[in-house]
Amino acid sequence: MDIQNNIIGLKTSATLAINELSQKLIKDGKEVFKFGLGQSPFPIPEVIVDELKKHAHQKDYINVSGLIGLREEVANYHSNKNQYKYNAESVIIGPGSKELIFQTQLALNCDLLLPSPSWVSYEPQAQIINKRVHWIKTTAKSNWHLEPEELDRACDSLKSVNKLLILNSPNNPSGTSHGNLKELAKISKKHNIVIIADEIYAELDFTGEYKSITHYYPEKTIISSGLSKWCGAGGWRLGTLLFPEGLSHIRDGVRAIASETYTAVSAPIQYAAIKAYSEDHSEFLDSSRIILKMIADYIYRELSSVGVKCQKPQGGFYMICDFSNVENITQEINNDKTLCQKILNDIGFAMLPGSDFGLEEEKLLSRIAFVDFDGSEALKLISNKNFSQENSLDIICPQIVKGVSLLKEWIKSQ
Fold first, then answer.
1. Quick one: CA torsion of 266, 373, 15, 25, rounded to 10 degrees?
2. What is the pTM of this model?
3. Helix 336-347 crosses helix 398-413 at what angle (to 10 degrees)?
4. DSSP 3-state assignment of 295?
5. β-strand 163-168 against 111-116: which pairing, if any?
6. Residue range 57-85: mean pLDDT, rounded
7. 176 and 311 in contact (C-beta within 8 Å)?
8. Top CATH class, 14-43+282-413
9. Alpha carbons 271 and 48: distance in angstroms, whole number
10. pLDDT digits 0-9 by tens, 24-52
């Protein structure tokens, strides 16, 4: 029996594939510097882990939308952060934000608008359900974010089409934050766009400020978030969706799909997650941001010094690197996949080509994730009152320092 045509050619998600390849190379005895998969290096806060242990006996199916106590806390949290009043009925708890974004795409009769670059799974999810995708180009000049004028132009050419836009900020793959949310909201309102605001990295904005398009356009914005990035609980698979009252029909559609697919998220994890949303984790988050910014600034300085044009991250743990102006590389390498494969083969530095995120292959862009370090040890180090950023990176992230050093030497040798 044949598989569906839209599934032919669909591959393992690029971020997961690079992680599996890295693990295989390590098992084969090769030293690998893991700049591919964006998995949080930080530990889950202890109070949340303790709560999971306490509720390990919970075994019953939970309401499809999620545990009522958890939904109430999620609604309170986002009402504060997103400056819009949500309640428990606004919330759906799911097995990771990735699944919830897919369920939302599945529920909606629309075309998908994506800034280029965007996270690797948005487009393949649309492909699985035969949804049309319209890429809207961005540039380093616009901080790799969507310009309102470009969105307006794209929408003018799609007047008779229902439109869903996914915005992610701080962004994966660029690590940059949107600076024009108010203007984007105005254009979105003009064209009646429904937005999924993927805010999974919002708590990791280096300024500590929670920035959201819901501050300007809450009535048509669905918030997607969860525990994987700020809380370090990627493997727990707990994501959240919040719907404004005017989009309750979409919420009901997603809930119906959930009831026929995953049923409910693990009960013990939902009980534990209440502590993630009800406790004060500001000290943990402040320390995490300090560490990530320190590493981002270091990598930016080091790679810029050998001609790699990097976009300075403003949050999260990603960076886009442009190798197109590095002397001698463009003479032998003409696409980003070849570039990344050669660097992996030569020095074990694993990163992803920009084309996995919707960028053009010939531009020689890559995305790096700077998470190859022990987050627990890093948090302990900076909690020391004698901590100084100077000369501490060798202790905090030795694999990152070594990997960046080898990459610099490789560039110089070309």
1. -110
2. 0.95
3. 110
4. helix
5. parallel
6. 98
7. yes
8. alpha beta
9. 9
10. 888 888 888 999 888 999 999 999 999 99
Higher pLDDT, 314 or 13: 314
Res 389 pLDDT > 80: no
> Given this model, what pLDDT does residue 24 score?
87
Is residue 369 helix, strand or coil?
strand
| HSE-up (13 A, CA, CB side) for residue 198 | 27
Distance of CA 4 to the CA centre of its chain: 29
Give the C-alpha distances (Å, rounded to integers) separating 279 from 212, 289, 323, 367: 22, 18, 43, 34
Partners of residue 33 on adjacent β-strands: 349
Residue 167 pairs in a beta bridge with: 197
Inter-residue contact 279 to 374 (CB < 8 Å)? no
pLDDT band per the 50, 70, 90 thresholds, residue 306: very high
Contact of 58 with 267, CB cutoff 8 Å: yes
Nearest Cα to Cα of residue 221 among 254, 258, 251, 201: 251
Query: In this structure, what are the phi and psi dihedrals at residue 226, rounded to the nearest 5 degrees?
Result: 160, -165
Q: What is the pLDDT of residues 132-145, one digit of tens each?
A: 999 999 999 999 99
- What span, in angstroms and rounded, lies between the C-alpha atoms of 234 and 239? 10
Say if CB 198 and CB 221 are below 8 A apart: no
Asked if pLDDT for residue 366 goes beyond 90, the answer is yes
Quick check: 108 pLDDT over 70? yes
Instruction: Give CATH for domain 46-278.
Output: 3.40.640.10
The CA-to-CA distance between both ends of the chain, in Å, stands at 49
pLDDT the model gives residue 139:
93
Q: Which amino acid is at 38?
A: G
CA distance 70 to 79: 14
Helix (H/G/I), strand (E/B), else coil: 142: helix
Type of residue at 284: F
Helices (H), 317-369: 329-332, 336-347
Amino acid identity at 218: P
* Residues 315-331 pLDDT 10s: 999 999 999 988 777 67
Residue where the block lists tokens 């560490």? 291
Annotated domain spans of the chain = 14-43+282-413, 46-278
DSSP track, 38-59: ----SPPPHHHHHHHHHTTT--
